[in-house]
Every structure is written in structure tokens, then in C-alpha cells.
Amino acid sequence: MKYDNEIISDRPMAGVAVRPIKRIPPDKAGGVQGVLANRPAAVASVDVTPPTVTLAALATQQLTATLRDNHGSLTTGAVVWSSSDATKATVGSNGLVTAVATGSATITGRVGEFSDTCEVTVS
User: Fold this and answer.
1) Mapping DSSP to helix (H, G, I), strand (E, B) and coil, where does residue 84 land?
2) Domain boundaries, position 62
3) What is the SS3 assignment for 81?
């Protein structure tokens, strides 16, 4: 019996974008039979909100990254956050921006090759 790349279902679950579900051969599933692989769909776009923010020094702002697959459906992924100038604004691994000193910085949320930004002005 051949299992490799046999598609069982390609319909996404409600509210979750998924790649086609494939049967895993028992010899590749640690001897467990009937195991299905259900993986999140690949990220095709990142949308960071809000796109701009003005903060007083030491104030914080939570940013959110919305990830979508190539069909526009919501999906999941690990967002890597970074600041163009940490002397003006920093960002934590959860997207929380902290204003440091007067000036501006660009905060980037990235998943693989896809990214979006928020322009932060510290007054």
C-alpha cells in the first residue's frame, strides 16, 4: 500500500488555513497507524498594526502582526520583531514597543521573507 503524498483532504477547517492533510506511512510515524499530518499553511503576507504610532518617552504600545496564506486566509507563524534604532524605541519578542528617547524608529515584524512595519515617533 502506498501512502507517500496521498492527499486525504484539502479542505481547510473553519477559521484555520491548513495545507492538505497527508497520510503518514506507519514506518515513518513511529509504528502508530492512522496518523495524519495537519500543518498550518505557509505565510504569504504579514500586516503589522497599527502602521504608525506616536509615544511619549517610556510609554509602550502593543503591536499586532496578522499573518495570511496565499489564499488570504489567516494562518500562524513565529513573528520576529526588530527595531531600526533601539536608542529611540525597542520592541520585545511579543511585539511590545517601548519608547526610549525623542526621535523615530521603524519596527519590523517578519516571518520568513515576509514583513511589515510600524513607524514609531517618540516625542
Assistant:
1) coil
2) 45-122
3) strand
